[in-house]
């Protein structure tokens, strides 16, 4: 197989310099110039749709990963995929597809932490550890992660106990659900650390990016003394993105298998979006040849992406709204930078990112749905609540993030008349957000106690909450550290010096 090389989104790309291998891109996280690594090209998915319909999740994942991760051997990838997608998922299909309420729900929440971040973070630790060996890095690797709620726990679970790697997760104190917070502060494992930040997700992500930049240039907290080897578990790491492409193919295979679509028939995917990582993987699947008509980018009330796709202006200068879908409460969507690179090239991307840093706003007229297949829509808090209620009456319980996508799909299809088959990417278990879900189903059932509401939801839905969630009620709190956004580097220092 031809080697695949990776280039920074702020570089001239292939032809304009030398690229790095997959393992180097995964080991580094962001590129040294502050950009994100992108592959030099999109490999053609070489399997027919009939064959895809009969493939197990692991085989699909392998087929997708192979042409991207060319400096890993087949034997390595096979071993990692086998270890990642095993019985820790509570569905044998790994990512089952449920047909309800006139749409298909691609359920990505059957992993250990009950959100879609497990799809990539079950695999990333293996890829990262092997990358360090391939790149001859002997130092301890410090995985720095900012989380809007779900990445943190998935990274902690994925990396807990992995030798040679330390994990530090920063989460916005007031910006996550009660269950999300408990999942993180009760995490066991000698190599994992959790710090609350008194700020929102953007403050938290900005703080982590600054630590990366300072360590890269040897300034700020790293002006003197040894610099740790930092990597990232956020979707800025290409090792997060690649495994996510697989489930778009898997979903399509399920639809072909059930006879819902004929082989080659184009479908839509609606993706609840925050940092633009999940939907970007869908875009990569489309570029690899998956028959995708539209990717509906569903935002919540923080609808900076909706405005961008509809006006061509990205403007983060607006109020940050705390919603019932906290993992989408984001105003700076990091992975949009990769889409910009693919549609308008490195020089223009660099300019726009500089404008974003300096003024919080940039313009990009090139990014039209006709070219990318992506359209922006949003679901407000009230619309998401109504969607939860409506779909509950049809026998299916959605979490608030999935509900934003459902509401957005309804608006998009009513506006455009697009009646193609639609897959809603279901990103979290409703049990992670039981208070919001119960309140939406019936305001008379509202209650503030997360674990009490989980029991109410069990009664309402006739399903059982995952044990990994119910046991949180009695686990001891192990991480109590809290800091200001400006003190994050200090916190890293203290943790590493211990
Ligand atoms: C992370 C997350 C999202 C947003 O995904 P992005 O890749 O950041 O766009 C949506 N829903 C849930 C439940 C999540 O955890």
Characterization of the model:
The chain is 43% helix and 14% strand. The chain is an alpha/beta fold and 498 residues long. The strands form four sheets. Strands 3-4-14-9-10-13 form a six-stranded mixed beta sheet, with helices on both faces. It has a five-stranded parallel beta sheet with strand order 8-5-6-7-15, with helices on both faces. The radius of gyration is 21 Å and the shape is globular. The model has no long low-confidence stretch (mean pLDDT 95). The site of pyridoxal-5'-phosphate (PLP) has 17 residues, from helix 11.
Distinct ligands: pyridoxal-5'-phosphate
Strand content: 5-15%
Separate helix tally: 20
Mean pLDDT: 95
Total beta-strand segments: 15
Low-pLDDT parts are none
Largest sheet: 6 strands, mixed
Proportion of residues in helical segments: 40-55%
> Can you tell me the overall shape?
globular
Report strand order across the widest sheet.
Answer: 3-4-14-9-10-13
Q: For this entry, what is the oligomeric state of its chains?
A: single chain
In whole angstroms, how far apart are the ends? 45 Å
Give Rg in angstroms: 21 Å
Q: What is the secondary structure topology, with strand pairs?
A:
Layout: E1 6-8, H1 22-28, E2 37-39, H2 49-53, H3 57-65, H4 74-84, E3 97-100, E4 103-107, H5 117-121, H6 124-134, E5 141-146, H7 150-159, E6 165-172, H8 178-185, E7 192-197, H9 201-217, E8 229-232, H10 238-258, E9 267-272, H11 277-287, E10 292-299, H12 304-311, E11 313-315, H13 336-359, E12 361-363, H14 369-372, E13 374-378, H15 381-393, H16 400-416, E14 422-426, H17 434-441, H18 450-461, H19 467-470, E15 482-483, H20 488-497
Helix pairs in contact: 1-6, 3-4, 3-10, 10-11, 15-16, 15-17, 17-18
Bound molecules: pyridoxal-5'-phosphate.
Pyridoxal-5'-phosphate binds next to helix 11.
């Amino acid at each position: 197989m031809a080697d695949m090389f990776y280039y920074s989104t702020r570089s001239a790309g292939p032809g304009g310099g030398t690229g790095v291998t997959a393992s180097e891109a995964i080991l580094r996280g962001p590129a040294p110039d502050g950009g994100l690594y992108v592959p030099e090209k999109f490999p053609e998915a070489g399997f027919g749709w009939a064959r895809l319909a009969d493939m197990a999740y692991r085989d699909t994942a392998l087929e997708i990963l192979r042409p991207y991760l060319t400096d890993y051997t087949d034997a390595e990838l096979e071993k990692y995929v086998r270890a990642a997608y095993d019985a820790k998922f509570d569905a044998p299909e790994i990512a089952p597809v449920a047909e309800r309420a006139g749409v298909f729900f691609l359920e990505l929440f059957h992993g250990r932490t009950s959100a879609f971040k497990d799809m990539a973070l079950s695999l990333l630790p293996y890829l990262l550890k092997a990358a360090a060996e391939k790149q001859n890095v002997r130092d301890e690797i410090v995985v720095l992660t900012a989380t809007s709620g779900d990445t943190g726990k998935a990274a902690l679970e994925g990396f807990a106990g992995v030798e040679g790697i330390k994990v530090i997760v920063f989460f916005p104190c007031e910006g996550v659900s009660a269950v999300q917070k408990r999942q993180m502060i009760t995490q066991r494992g000698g190599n994992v650390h959790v710090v609350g930040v008194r700020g929102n997700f953007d403050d938290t992500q900005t703080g982590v990016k600054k630590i990366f930049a300072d360590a890269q240039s040897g300034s700020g907290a790293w002006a003197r003394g040894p610099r740790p080897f930092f990597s990232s578990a956020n979707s800025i790491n290409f090792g997060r993105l690649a495994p996510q492409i697989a489930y778009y193919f898997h979903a399509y295979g399920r639809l072909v298998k059930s006879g819902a679509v004929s082989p080659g028939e184009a479908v839509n995917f609606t993706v609840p979006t925050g940092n633009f990582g999940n939907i970007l993987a869908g875009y990569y699947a489309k570029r690899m040849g998956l028959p995708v008509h539209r990717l509906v980018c569903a935002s919540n009330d923080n609808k900076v992406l909706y405005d961008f796709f509809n006006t061509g202006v990205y403007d983060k200068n607006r109020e940050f709204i705390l919603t019932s879908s906290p993992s989408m409460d984001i105003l700076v969507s990091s992975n949009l930078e990769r889409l910009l690179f693919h549609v308008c090239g490195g020089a223009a991307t660099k300019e726009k990112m500089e404008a974003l840093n300096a003024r919080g706003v940039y313009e990009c007229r090139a990014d039209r749905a006709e070219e990318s297949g992506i359209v922006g829509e949003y679901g407000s808090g009230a619309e998401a609540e109504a969607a939860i209620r409506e779909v509950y009456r049809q026998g299916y319980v959605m979490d608030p993030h999935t509900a934003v996508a459902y509401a957005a799909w309804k608006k998009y299809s009513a506006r455009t008349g697009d009646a193609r088959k639609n897959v809603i990417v279901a990103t979290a278990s409703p049990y992670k957000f039981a208070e919001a879900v119960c309140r939406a189903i019936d305001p008379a059932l509202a209650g503030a106690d997360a674990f009490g509401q989980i029991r109410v939801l069990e009664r309402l839905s006739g399903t059982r909450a995952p044990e990994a969630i119910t046991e949180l009620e009695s686990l001891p709190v192990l991480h109590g550290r809290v800091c200001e956004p400006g003190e994050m580097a200090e916190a890293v220092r203290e943790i590493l010096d211990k």
